[in-house]
Amino acid sequence: MHDIVIRNGTIVDGSGKKPFVGDIAIDGNKITTVGEVNNTGQKEIDAKGKVVTPGWVDIHTHYDGQVCWDPYLTPSSWHGVTTVVMGNCGVGFAPVKPGSEDYLIQLMEGVEDIPGTALHDGIDFDWESFPEFLDAIDKKEFVVDVGAMIGHGPVRSYVMGYDRCQGKDDASEEEIKEMAKLTKEAIEAGALGFSSSRTYLHTDIHGKYVPGTEAGQAEMRAISQAIAASGEGTLELVSDWMDQDIELDW
Prior knowledge:
GO terms for molecular function: hydrolase activity, acting on carbon-nitrogen (but not peptide) bonds, in cyclic amides. This is Amidohydrolase 3 domain-containing protein. By secondary structure, this protein is α/β, with parallel strands linked by helices. Helix content is 30%, strand content 24%. It has seven helices and eleven strands. The strands form three sheets. Strands 1, 2, 3, 4 and 5 form a five-stranded mixed sheet that branches. The chain has a three-stranded parallel sheet with strand order 6-7-8, with no helix packed on it. The chain is elongated and about 65 Å long.
C-alpha cells in the first residue's frame, strides 16, 4: 500500500513528452511510481479532468519581506508553485546596517509598490549580514522551498552609505573590493546569485534611481568575478541599455 495515490490525472511530467492520463504513487516525501498504479493508497485522490505536474518554480519574486510573516508565501503557493526565488531587481533587506532599515524599505516600496507600512510592521531585522538573513529564514517553516539572491542595492548602501550609493558617485577601489567580498560570502552561505538593476524604471519612493543603476564597469566586473570565484551562482540584471556600445563592450 502506498501513502498517497493520485489517479486518472492528465500528467505533464516536464520531460517534453505529450501529456498522458495516468496515476502517481507517493511514499513518504517521494514520488515512487508514475503511470499505472495497481496498489491502493492510504489516501486516494481522483484527479480526473485535472492536470498533474511537477511543482512550478517561480524564479522572480519579491517575498524578501513577506518571508518574515507569511509561511504560505501567497499567492505563489496557491497556484502550484513549490519553489520561489526572491532578491530580484537589486532590492532586498540584507546586508543592512543598524539605522538604514528604512532606506531599504523605501527602495522596495518604490520598485515593487509593496506598502512600506506592511514592511515596517512585518520585518524584525534581526540580522545584519546576508548569511545572517539566510539563517533567519532557515529558522522559519514554509509550505514552499525558498531561495534568495543578494541585491546590489543593499550591498552598495551597506558599503557606501545610503547618502552616496545612489547617483553617479563611483565606488572607490576599497569599496569595490568590499562589495565583491560581501557578494562572495553571501553565495558561499547559500545565496543563489547576485541581482542588480540598470533600468530607469526602478526608483525609490522619492523618484531617485536605485543603487547600481549607474555603477561603473570596475564595480560590476569585480562583483561578477567574485561570483565566478565562488564556483556557483547567477547574475540577474535588468538593463535599459543606456549606451549599447558600452554595455556590449564589457
